[in-house]
Amino acid sequence: MASMFVGHILLALFYIFPNFANPTHHSQLLFCSIVSVIAVTLIAVINLHLMVASLDRLMMMKLFRYRRHYSGYRTIIVIIGIIWFFSILLGILPLFLYRSIQSNNCQTWQIISSSHEITFHYVVIVFIFIIPIIVMVSCYTCIFKMVRRTINHHYHRDGNWVGGEHRVTSFNQRKVSITLTMTMILYIIMWSPFFICYIIAINPFILSNILKMDDFYMALKIAQYLAFCYPAVNPVAYALLSNEIRTTIRESMRNFAKVSPIA
Question: What contacts 144, CB < 8 A, 6 or more positions away?
Answer without folding.
Answer: 177, 180, 181
